[in-house]
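dumping this here before i forget
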Amino acid sequence: LFDPSEMRDSDVATMSIGQSIAVTPIQLITAVSAIANDGVLLKPYIIKEIRNSDGSLDKTGATQSVRQVISAASARTLADMMEKVVSEGGGKKAEVKGYHFAGKTGTAEKTKEGGGYYENRYISSFVGFGPVEDPQIAVLVVLDDPVGIYYGGQIAAPIAHDIFSGIFRYLKIEPSLPIKGNSVTAIAPKS
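structure:
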């Protein structure tokens, strides 16, 4: 992000539509995870646990709270907005029937070294978390230089759908919404 004292009017204008901002994938998923965690930023770690050759537990990654980066109320407001992106907006192709989850699509022009943007070169993305009621998973899909269709909601969101669907099944996360299929409607109990 720019130092505010060095920003030009054009920087403010382009930032409002997501240009001129660069974050790493780990920064983005960490920020979105803070929204899912009621505004609390957690220190990311990669390894959940290390087991010895006999199967016994050697080390465990510990969740470490860094600080409250936004209020819990603001985090809930953002989660509600992001849920609408998936249920009604540009991220609809990420929707998994039976679940509430939040997300945001992204389509960015690739920047040239020295300034400006490449013509017809993009980075497409989708980032989200769920289930909104009890967040368990955060997913980031990034496609660098997609060919043909390049909008995040069109090409990254369907990949996120597949990832969420598989992880929800693997973790046995029950749906919280009615699921309509063939001739059966199932409603999962609330926990």
